[in-house]
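Work Package 4 report. The design task specified in the project plan requires that, given a folded chain encoded as structure tokens, an amino acid be chosen for each position. We show below one input record used in the internal validation round.
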């Protein structure tokens, strides 16, 4: 049976998620997170993609991206995933032992500005909702941490948002603790 074609249109914002195979903890320590962040930075330099926000957790990651050209999201995600998986297996001396991710990434087109704000809040609040930190800005492996604490190279990864950021954005993120508030219907 053929796979369902995904929306791969350019000039579009997307919420992207990918989970580890069997919800395995891919990111075991800070060096695994750093490896992923480094590959993400390389990917963003190679492709016409804007990263608005991201959150990397133990066994999955979320992105909110703007894609300029048709099919660019597929090329970006393929390169990012392939390079990260190869480097991860090399680091862990596990080359040839199987898949890291449970399948293709999932992508959800963002419909309008209101939906974009909901998705941004959801992605930025993921570490809080998962109980990893009390406040989203404490989670080192997120865009919200980078905006506050990151170095200039890290901050270059993040694009300006096309919407006004509410003055109480951090409050909205940190109170959004229920995973049930996922605007994509994923959880």
């Amino acid at each position: 049976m053929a796979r369902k074609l995904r929306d791969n249109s350019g000039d579009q914002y997307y919420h992207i998620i990918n989970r580890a195979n069997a919800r395995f903890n891919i990111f075991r320590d800070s060096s695994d997170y750093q490896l992923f962040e480094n590959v993400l930075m390389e990917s963003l330099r190679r492709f016409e993609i804007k990263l608005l926000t991201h959150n990397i957790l133990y066994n999955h990651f979320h992105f909110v991206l703007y894609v300029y050209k048709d099919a660019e999201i597929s090329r970006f995600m393929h390169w990012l995933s392939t390079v990260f998986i190869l480097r991860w297996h090399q680091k862990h001396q596990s080359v040839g032992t199987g898949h890291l991710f449970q399948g293709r990434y999932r992508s959800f087109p963002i419909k309008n500005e209101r939906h974009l704000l909901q998705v941004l809040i959801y992605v930025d609040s993921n570490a809080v909702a998962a109980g990893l930190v009390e406040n989203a800005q404490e989670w080192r492996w997120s865009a919200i941490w980078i905006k506050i604490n990151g170095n200039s190279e890290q901050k270059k990864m993040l694009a300006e948002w096309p919407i006004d950021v509410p003055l109480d954005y951090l409050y909205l993120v940190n109170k959004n603790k229920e995973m049930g508030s996922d605007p994509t219907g994923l959880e």
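The helical segments are 30-46, 72-91, 113-124, 126-129, 143-149, 152-155, 169-175. Validation will be extended to a larger panel in the next phase.
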